[in-house]
Design goal:
heterodimer, A: alpha/beta, Rossmann fold, two-stranded antiparallel sheet, about 10% strand, disordered N terminus, B: Rossmann fold, 2 domains, 7-stranded mixed beta sheet, 5-stranded mixed beta sheet, 12 helices, binds thiamine diphosphate, binds magnesium ion
C-alpha cells in the first residue's frame, strides 16, 4: 500500500531529512488527511456514517507536526482534530474508515466510533471524550518507560483551547512537571470550543503564559504556517527528548469547519474568517511549494490523485466488511472474564 | 503475634513491591518517612524509594497517570487519602479505566485503594462508602474485605488481576480487627464466604457491616436463633450462587451495607434473590443501610446514621417474626 511505502521511506529519512523534504512529506500527510476527511464528510452527508464526523480542517499543519517527529516507542495522545498527526504517526487509513463505518474488524470493533479510536499497543492512545483526561494518562505511560529504564522517548498530547480549561488538564500539566516526564503538549487555539469563542473560555492574556506557571517551557506558533509548525513543534519534541522540562506549544488557527459535520458554525462572524489565523494551512503550504518550486503542478496533481485513490481503497475495503452484531458480541467488559462469568 | 487489618494492607504492599518490579504506589503523602494518612505505606518508601511516590493533590491526574502506566505494563497501586476524594477521580476510573479494555482490548491493571467508611467524628467528607457507585459501572472489580486475612490476600490478588480493581478498605476495621497470622492464600476473587453458619435467617453483608452482622448474630444466638452470615468479599463480581444457597437453607434474607440507601449493593442482592430465588423466600427480603443524609460528624448522630449490630439484630428479629 502506498501509505506503507511512504511510512517506511519516512523512517529511513527521518533524521537526515533536509527541511524541504520534511516539508513535502508533511504536506503529503496533510493532503491525505484533508482528502480522507472530505470523503468522510460526503459519506456522512449521504447518510452512510452513523454518529458524528469531526474533522481537522485548518489544523492539519499543527497536527502533522505532532505526529511527524515521534519515533518508535514514543507515546502519542491525539484528540479530535488530529487526522494528519495520526496518519503521520503510523495509523493506517483503514483504521479510520473501519471505525467511522462501524466495521467489526476495526480497532474499536463497533464498540466506539469516529475519533474515539487508537491503538494503545502501538502507543497511539485511544482518547476518551472527556477533554483533558489524556494528559495524565500520557504522563503515566512515560513514567512506565522510565521505570523500565528506557531512554530517548517522548510523549506528545494534543488539546484544544477549550479542553485547556478543564480541571483534568490542569492536574495533568502539573503532574507532568512534578514528574519531569519528557512530554510535549500541543494546544491548538482554533478560537472556538464548539460555539463558544475565546472570550468566554479564558481571560488570560495569552494561553502560553500558563507554561511558566506549571514549570513548562512555552512557545507559540502560527498554526497556518507549516514550516513554522514543523520548526516549533519539532524543536519542542527535540528539547523534551533531550531532557528539558515539559514543553507547551500553543498554536493559533481557525477551525475551518463546524464543530462536527452536524454544525454549520453560523456563529463564526465573517470578520473572524478574515483574520490571519483563519488562513487555510493546506493552501498556504501548497502556495509555498509552488512559489519555491519544490514540486511542479503536475506532481501535485499526481499526489492528489494518489491520496484520493488511497482513501477510496480504505473506504471500499471497510464498506465490504461485516458489521458487529448484538447477539454475537462478547458482552463482557473484563479481560479476566472467567473471574466474572463464573459468578455473575 | 497479632496483626491488624491495617498492618495486613501494609504487609501486602511490602510483599507486592518486593516480588514484582512492576508495582509502584502512588498517592498523597504515601512516601518519605510519613507513610500515608493512615500509615498504610509506612516504611515502604525507605525500602523502595523509587516506587513509593508522593503525588500532588490531583486525584484525577493520579488515577490518569496510573492508567497510563498500567497500559504500559506497570501494576500501580493508587492510595486515595480517603474514599470520599475518589469522587474527583471518578472520570478517570469510570470512563477511562472502566471502558478501556472493552474499547481497545488492552487491559488496565490498576488497583485503587479507598480508605472507606465511617469512624467517629469524621463527618460528611471523610466517611463515605463508595462501593455501590463503582460497582454500578462496567469494567471494574470492587473488593470489600471484611477480615484481616482477606485484607491481605485480596490486595495481593487485586494487583494480579488484569482489570481495574477498586479495593475498599474500611477505616473502622484498620485497628479494630486483629488476626494471629496472615494466610498464604484466600478464597478465589468473586467467591463469597459463609462467615457463620445458621438456618433461621441469612444476613448478607461485607466490609465493616459484616463484622457488625456477626455481632448481631451473636446477640440473636443468645435468644436461640441461628443466623447465617454471608460475607460477600467482593460486591462485584457478586456471588449470587452462595447467597441463593444460603437463602435456600434459611428462607429469610437481610442485606446490610454502610452506603446510602438508594440502590446499591444491598438492593442488587435483593433484586437477584427475588428474581432467581423467589420460591426460596418465606418472607419479604429486607435491607438495612445508612440513612439518606450526608454522614454526620457528631458521634451521637453518626451512630444513629449507620447500621450497627444492635440495629441489625432488631431488623433481623422483626424479620424472624414474619
Ligand atoms: C470534559 C468535557 N466536557 C464537554 C465535552 C463536549 N465537547 C466535546 S468537544 C468540545 C469543544 C472542545 O473545544 P476545544 O477543546 O477548543 O477543541 P476543538 O473542538 O476546538 O478542537 C466540547 C465542549 C467534552 N468532550 N469533554
Ligand atoms: Mg477550540
Amino acid at each position: 500500500m502506498l501509505q506503507t511505502a511512504q511510512r517506511s521511506a519516512k523512517s529511513k529519512t527521518k533524521k537526515a531529512a533536509p527541511p524541504h523534504d520534511r516539508f513535502l512529506e508533511a504536506f503529503r500527510w496533510m493532503l491525505l488527511a484533508r482528502t480522507l476527511e472530505e470523503k468522510l464528510v460526503s459519506l456522512y452527508r449521504g447518510g452512510l456514517i452513523t454518529g458524528g464526523v469531526y474533522i481537522g480542517k485548518g489544523q492539519e499543519a499543527v497536527s502533522v507536526a505532532c505526529g511527524l517527529f515521534l519515533q518508535e516507542g514514543d507515546i502519542f495522545a491525539p484528540l479530535i482534530r488530529d487526522q494528519a498527526g495520526r496518519s503521520a504517526f503510523g495509523e493506517p487509513l483503514i483504521d479510520v474508515t473501519r471505525t467511522y463505518l462501524g466495521s467489526r474488524l476495526g480497532p474499536m470493533r463497533g464498540r466506539d466510533g469516529n475519533i474515539h479510536r487508537g491503538h494503545p499497543r502501538n502507543n497511539e492512545l485511544a482518547m476518551i471524550s472527556h477533554l483533558g483526561a489524556m494528559v495524565s494518562v500520557t504522563v503515566g505511560a512515560l513514567m512506565a518507560k522510565r521505570f523500565r529504564g528506557e531512554k530517548n522517548f517522548v510523549g506528545l498530547a494534543c488539546i484544544g483551547e477549550g479542553g485547556m480549561q478543564t480541571g483534568a488538564f490542569h492536574e495533568g500539566m502539573n503532574i507532568a512537571a512534578v514528574e519531569q516526564v519528557p512530554l510535549v503538549i500541543v494546544a491548538t487555539n482554533n478560537h472556538y470550543a464548539y460555539s463558544t469563542p475565546n472570550d468566554r473560555e479564558f481571560a488570560c492574556h495569552d494561553l502560553v503564559d500558563r507554561a511558566i506557571g506549571y514549570g513548562f517551557e512555552g512557545y507559540t506558533v502560527d498554526g497556518t504556517d507549516l514550516a513554522a509548525c514543523l520548526d516549533v513543534i519539532g524543536s519542542a519534541v527535540k528539547r523534551a527528548r533531550a531532557g528539558r522540562p515539559p514543553q507547551l506549544v500553543v498554536a493559533s488557527v481557525l477551525r475551518l469547519s463546524g464543530h462536527g459535520e452536524h454544525d454549520d458554525a453560523s456563529y463564526v462572524p465573517e470578520e473572524v474568517k478574515r483574520e490571519p489565523f483563519a488562513r487555510d494551512c493546506l493552501k498556504v503550504a501548497e502556495q509555498t511549494i509552488l512559489d519555491l518550486e519544490l514540486l511542479d503542478a503536475e506532481t501535485l496533481a499526481e499526489w492528489r490523485k494518489e491520496a484520493a485513490a488511497q482513501v477510496d481503497e480504505a473506504v471500499a475495503a471497510a464498506q465490504k466488511e461485516p458489521a458487529p452484531e448484538g447477539d454475537k458480541e462478547d458482552w463482557c467488559a473484563y479481560s479476566m472474564r472467567d473471574l466474572v462469568n463464573s459468578v455473575e | 503475634m497479632s496483626i491488624t487489618y491495617l498492618e495486613a494492607i501494609r504487609e501486602a504492599q511490602a510483599k507486592l513491591l518486593r516480588d514484582d518490579e512492576r508495582v509502584f504506589i502512588y498517592g498523597q503523602d504515601v512516601g518519605g518517612t510519613f507513610g500515608g494518612a493512615f500509615k498504610a505505606t509506612k516504611g515502604l518508601a525507605k525500602e523502595f524509594p523509587a516506587r513509593v511516590l508522593n503525588t500532588p493533590i490531583s486525584e484525577d491526574a493520579i488515577v490518569g497517570t496510573a492508567i497510563g502506566a498500567a497500559m504500559q505494563g506497570m501494576r500501580p497501586i493508587v492510595e486515595m487519602q480517603f474514599a470520599d476524594f475518589s469522587s474527583i477521580a471518578l472520570n478517570q476510573i469510570l470512563n477511562n479505566a472502566g471502558t478501556h479494555y472493552w474499547r481497545t482490548n488492552v487491559p488496565v491493571p490498576i488497583t485503587v485503594r479507598l480508605p472507606s467508611g465511617g469512624t467517629k467524628g469524621s463527618g460528611p467528607f471523610h466517611s463515605q462508602s463508595m462501593e455501590s457507585i463503582y460497582a454500578h459501572y462496567p469494567g471494574l472489580i470492587v473488593m470489600t474485605p471484611a477480615t484481616v486475612e482477606d485484607a491481605y490476600t485480596m490486595l495481593i490478588e487485586a494487583v494480579a488481576i488484569d482489570d481495574p480493581v477498586i479495593y475498599c478498605e474500611h477505616k473502622y476495621l484498620y485497628y479494630h480487627l486483629k488476626a494471629d497470622k496472615l494466610p498464604e492464600k484466600g478464597l478465589p476473587t468473586g467467591r463469597a464466604r459463609i462467615a457463620r453458619e445458621g438456618r433461621d435467617l441469612t444476613i448478607v453483608s461485607y466490609s465493616a457491616m459484616m463484622q457488625e452482622s456477626l455481632g448481631a448474630a451473636e446477640e440473636l444466638a443468645r435468644e436461640g436463633f441461628e443466623i447465617e452470615v454471608v460475607d460477600l468479599r467482593t460486591v462485584k463480581p457478586l456471588d449470587t450462587d452462595t447467597v441463593l444457597a444460603s437463602v435456600a437453607r434459611t428462607g429469610r434474607l437481610l442485606c446490610v451495607g454502610e452506603s446510602f440507601p438508594w440502590g446499591g449493593a444491598t438492593a442488587e442482592v435483593i433484586a437477584r434473590v427475588t428474581n432467581q430465588g423467589f420460591h426460596l423466600l418465606d418472607a419479604a427480603p429486607q435491607r438495612l443501610n445508612a440513612k439518606d443524609t450526608p454522614i454526620p460528624y457528631h458521634p451521637n448522630l453518626w451512630s444513629a446514621h449507620r447500621p450497627n449490630a444492635k440495629k441489625i439484630a432488631a431488623k433481623a428479629r422483626a424479620l424472624l417474626r414474619e
